[in-house]
Each structure stands twice: as structure tokens, then as C-alpha cells.
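Q: I'm writing up a methods section and want to include an example of the input and output format. Could you take the sequence below and give the corresponding predicted C-alpha cells, formatted cleanly so I can copy it straight into the document?
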Amino acid sequence: MGSKKIKGLFIEGDAYTLRSARVSSLTAPLRIESVAVQAWDGGGGVETILDKGKASGSRRYIPAHCAFAPDSRYFFLHKAPSLTKAKESAYWAPVLRQARLDSEEVMLGIMEASSGRLLEDLAPGGGARDLLVCGARRSEWKSLQEALVGQNIVPQRLELGGLSALAGLRDYLQWKQITAPVLFFEMGKREAHLFILCGGKVVLCRGIAFGYESVLPLIRSELGLKEDEAARHLFFSNTFDFRDIGSVLFSRLLRDLNAASGFYEMQTGHPLHGFVMTGTPAGLDWIPAVIATGLEISALKIDWEGWLSRHQIAIGETVESLDLTTALLPLLSLMMKFHDTRDEG
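A: Here is the clean output for your methods example:
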């Protein structure tokens, strides 16, 4: 049987891993034809998404929906006095300065914390409103766009990594009628991002100065290694089992996570219902269990078959094997179209 032409691509990249799916359509109903997962450095190098044999000799452009997580990515919650005020262009420069961000250097994305709707789509007026603010350095974003176009990939949608997973998790919790708070967590090279979703709303957002690179000096110390590079090789090559010292390696992170989640539980009186972690590099799938144990909460079990079926996403016969774990949550969520079903008043 001859190979089918690519109808579209979904591409999601975090600090260490690039995930892509060839699909029958960029809009549901769609069928996943193949999924590729590969290591990368979080910067460029998207040329390996396409078969080199198929990419060379053809200048056909491939439409794609993409999400990337640059190192400069940021998130924070902000309470605006009104949507009218939030829509004023002069309003955000001092807000960004307070967050130690330069409005000339970073892109700015703003959405309602309770619905995920973009600020530009919300009617002005009303009282104070909680907004999720996010973005990344413009230069990093431009480099990613150029790398994609250079490989004949045309991003019809290009969004900040983490947003699709947040939207997907919110949709899943509403579908399953889970109203209790759930902790969503992802970690990059040098920073981690913590969110708590409750009742369809992002109620807590924290940045933590700890990433996978933060573990390397601890590995070096624990194993008596001379250089961080040796520790990096052991950690990412999956040639050494770190499970026994996992709680030691992530003790500082667990302290900060416990402090943030514990403060939320104390304020609200609502215990966390579950835990979801994305962005785990290949071979390090033991880390979410270490985090969940340290937080004394269980990983959220996702009904993948039912959820994908709800969004009219099928897994084609050409997909040899697909391990449906939360590592694929951002990529699969990118394929879905979400609607806010609540009465916004």
C-alpha cells in the first residue's frame, strides 16, 4: 500500500521532547495516522518531524497546529479592576514590570481564568476579573516560527506550551463532573509551573525556580561524580535507576509544591482531588510517581478512550502502538475544540 499524503500535523514541544502526530484532518472528526516522539533541545531542530525522504524533493507546505514551551515562558494570575480597564493598551506595561518582564521583549497573552476565553473575545465592562497572563520572549518565538516554515510546515495555529494541556484538563474535569481541585504541574529545564484548577477555573498559578537541570548537582553529589555533564548523561540516558533517591533529588521542589498546595488547601478547606504532570522526558516516567508520593495525592486517572471519542478523535490502524499517558495530554488536547458550557451570566 502506498503512503498517504500528510493532511496535517499537530506538533507539541517542551524542554526536552518533541511530539508530533500526522492526522487525516486538522479539525474533528479526525483520525491519527501516526505519532512520533523524539528528543530535542527545546530550541530548533524541527526538521526531523518530517521524513527526510518525503520532505526533500517536495516543496508542498504542510498545515499544522503547534504548541511550544520556550525557556522564557511565563504565567501568572492577575485581578483586573474591570475588563474595560484590562483592554486598555497602557494598562499592561506596569503590570509586566511588576512581574519583572519587559513589555518590549515579551509577547503578551491574556485570557479569563474561569473560561479560558481570550481577553479580546470578552465584552468590556463588569467588575473585577481574574485573568491568566502568559507569554514568552519574542526572539525565541520568532526562531521557532522560522524553523517550522523552513521545513515546509505552516503553523495555522501556534500557541504557548501548557495552554492546550490546561484547556484539555479543564474540559476533562468538566466532562467527568469533577469539581474538587486538581493540581496540574509541568517542569522545564530550570523552572516549573504549578496550577490548581477548581470548578473549571485556574485558581492558583505559581512559578518555581526548579527544573530538570537543578537535579544535576544533586546527582553529582549523591553519586560522587566530578562534573555535571556526567550527571546529565546518567540522568537522561536512562542507564541508572534513580527511584531510590528520587525524594532526595526533588526534595526542594516538593517543599515548594507542598507549601503552595498546602496554603491553598488551608485557605479554601478543599483537599486536592488529584495530580497531573506533563513534560516528562523519555525514560524519566518514574518522576510523576515520586512527586505524587511526596505530595501525598494520587495521579488523576484519565478515561482516554471515552474522552477522545467525545471529541471525535480516532486512532488509526496505522498507529502501531500508542501509550496513552499524561505525557501526550498537551498534544491530544491540541487536537480538540473546547466550548465553555457554563452560564457566564
